[in-house]
Amino acid sequence: MRTNIVIDDQLLEEAFSVSRSKTKKEVIHEALRELIRVRKRKDLTDLAGRISFYPGYDHKTLRKTR
């Protein structure tokens, strides 16, 4: 889809500095993909109280093996 937008020059420069993209179009596409990925990520606080572990589960033992 073709569209005309006004983009903040400082934001665009900063986006270029943290991206490997070479064109404005690539930076915008990368930013949109990142926005979608982040927003789709499940908020772990929503899972509070909904996860039940099996009776013998010991998270402290698992930490020691790392």
Question: How would you summarize this macromolecular structure in one to three sentences?
Answer:
With 66 residues, the protein is an all-alpha fold.
How does this model look, in words?
The structure is a single chain. 48% of the residues lie in helices and 0% in strands. The chain has a domain at 1-40. It is an all-alpha fold and 66 residues long. The chain is elongated, with a radius of gyration of 21 Å.
Major sheet: none
| Radius of gyration computed on alpha carbons | 21 Å
Mean pLDDT over all positions: 88
Assembly type of the chains comes to single chain
* Class computed from helices, strands and strand pairing: mainly alpha
Q: Using DSSP, what is the number of strands?
A: 0
Write the layout of secondary structure elements.
Layout: H1 9-17, H2 24-40, H3 59-64
Main attributes?
mainly alpha; 3 helices; 66 residues
